[in-house]
Amino acid sequence: MFASRKRNRRKAASGEEAGWLSKLSLSGLQPLFTESARHVLGMSGAIIAGVLILWGLATALDRPIAAVDVGGQFQRVAPIQVEEAVTPFRGAGFLSVDLDRLQASLEKIPWVDRARVERRWPSAVRITITEHVAAARWGEDGLMNTRGELFLRHTRHIPPELPQLIGPEGTEEQVAKLYLESYPRLLAVGMRLAKVELDPRGAWRLTLANGVQVRLGRQDVEQRLERFLRIASPLVATRSGEVEYVDLRYSNGFSVGWNPPATRMAHDAQDLTPDA
């Protein structure tokens, strides 16, 4: 009986303690949940308000482009060509206009090497055009720039003073490379390069401004050019009117072809049959 009473008292005490803890937990957590919810709602409201402000500001600033300012030194590019490239973008907004697409459109114009496009506050676009500088002609009617790039394949107007580069389709870069490397070296010995030719067999031939041909062949082109500069160029410089060509397709020398009356002289050549 006594044990039963003790057990009852323990259960009652235990029940009161559990109820008290439950009330304490709920009463303590309720303010915490309320405070967190208010914080989240406050942050969300601030973010939404910020987004709306930025959207409204962007909308207000994205007014239609009112002016297009074009700069650069124009010799080959016509203003009407620039106008045609810009026209599709005139209805765009100041902020939403696609400057990359506009730049690409401008750089498709013949003779345009580079186009720089930038916004000018509050509603203008500034365009700066840089034209290609023609350094050589390719074949009969193509043009190459100072980097050796073929930028026009067919043109009616070719400056007559430009050197001519000739080669099979797809060899433009290779021919331009030899021209760019040879031109200053020949100029250093008083000779101007007028033509560089690569034939379908892979043989190289240079033509100087005085009409003298320098035949380099297919092999050891660099070494043969160096041999011409060191040994043969003094002869050509002093007797250019008499020399028709200099053939360097030999292992250790060269031969000279003379203008009429036809005479041929072999110079320091043990084997008079060209290698290649």
Automatic annotation (TrEMBL):
Q: What GO terms fall under cellular component here?
A: cell division site; plasma membrane
Where found, per UniProt? Cell inner membrane; Membrane
Tell me yes or no: is Phosphoprotein among this UniProt entry's keywords. Answer: no
Record membrane topology: Single-pass type II membrane protein
The question of whether Transmembrane is a record keyword is answered with: yes
POTRA domain: residues covered = 63-132
Pfam families, alphabetized: FtsQ_DivIB_C, POTRA_1
Q: Which UniProt keywords apply?
A: Cell cycle, Cell division, Cell inner membrane, Cell membrane, Membrane, Transmembrane, Transmembrane helix
| Entry's transmembrane regions | 40-58
Subunit relationships? Part of a complex composed of FtsB, FtsL and FtsQ.
Family the UniProt entry places it in:
Belongs to the FtsQ/DivIB family. FtsQ subfamily.
Q: What function does this protein fulfil?
A: Essential cell division protein. May link together the upstream cell division proteins, which are predominantly cytoplasmic, with the downstream cell division proteins, which are predominantly periplasmic. May control correct divisome assembly.
List the PANTHER family. CELL DIVISION PROTEIN FTSQ
Q: What is this protein called?
A: Cell division protein FtsQ
